[in-house]
Request: fold
Amino acid sequence: MRSALIVGTGCVGTSVALALRAAGVTVHLADADRNALRVAVCLGAGSAEPPAAPPDVAVLDVPPDDVAPTLGRLQKTGAARSYTDVAGIKLLPQREALRASCDMTRYVGGHPMAEPEHAGALAAREDLLRDRPWALTPTEATGTRALNDVLELVALCGATPVLVDAARHDDIVARTIQLPYLLKELMSEDAAARHPLADRGRPPARSASPAPEPWGALLAGNADAVLRHLGALDTGIHEAMAALEPFASAEGGTGTGLGTETETETETETDAERAAPALRRLHALLARGAERPAPTPVRAVGTVAVTVRDAPGELARLFADVAAEGVSVRDVA
Reply:
């Protein structure tokens, strides 16, 4: 890779630019926010001058609902050979790009799974994406050259490519990133969460809560998956409530008061007998997570030679099949 165009100089886009510059790639920067662009240029992330010839790849660091319009505009002007984005959800941009008749043979959806402490170019780091998984969501239409360009981009940033279906990506992100964020924000409204005791034993916070606007767009764009996991969580919460209610004190207004003190030995024995089934249900609930088997690492057991036809989409289909079998892209030579 000789050159790249970074459209949007947020934390991730500028970090990609810094990593590419360190690898000797000529980087051009573009951003509608002139102040943000000036900051990225001052950080040494690249040049604000337009490229004299189309770069090898364009990276779109824009909100999810802006990916398709930006992609369409860039493709119409021939801004680059291949295109990718770094939005936090993938199904919405993919569907809108198809609806907008974008050239899907030259586009690969992407999501570097990094955790920047702050937003904006000033939070960017050359090593932000190093050793981090980078989700790629090629489709059957994805061309070989586009996929190879984006795989090289990921490698130059020091990240690990993970090929995954867009819908599967969004489901995983909803469960592991978006739902915990939503619950944290909801629970932070409680006065107990702001009490000094709430910080006892917890590691120092890495940063303040991020601005709600980007998170709102991500949650809205992935509403189906988030709602599905909220429903599953709601079921689990009601199961936990049902398991705990028998132990609630009578003064609390719920439960049978199994945990209250008794006056005679006979009554104490009776309470223990009555508590036994409820305690078993509670233990069974807590044991669910502990009993889940840990993921089994994939071990290489041999070498398989595959002939790939020189036709658009062949390499993308190969990598999709490899990922479906649980084989790491790093094991493909």
